[in-house]
Fold this sequence. Notes:
By secondary structure, the protein is mainly β. Helix content is 0%, strand content 49%.
Amino acid sequence: QVQLVESGGGSVPAGGSLRLSCAASGRTFSRFAMGWFRQAPGKEREFVGGIGGSGGSKSYRDSVRGRFTISRDNAKNMVFLQMNSLKPEDTAVYYCAAGPTVGLYEVWGQGTQVTVSS
Length: 118
């Protein structure tokens, strides 16, 4: 079973950028759809973006579309979330997830904190 480890979180001022990374174990990484989710204090976990196994089928939640970009490097078993023009409302713990298809995620990482100050 694939295991996921996120990195790249931190604290930035509004308007700043961060790039989150997720390293996956296993030899069948390209078979998995990958997603990014986030959970702010007191709120439910929400979908941020997803990408199919081959790098296509990208999707984003409306509030991040145009600011965030998801990508993957199957040769390195990595998935990324480039976050630009960050807003205080983007503050949350960000989780990487893997599953058999976009929209169905079964394995989760431990999360990385992103804090955006106003």
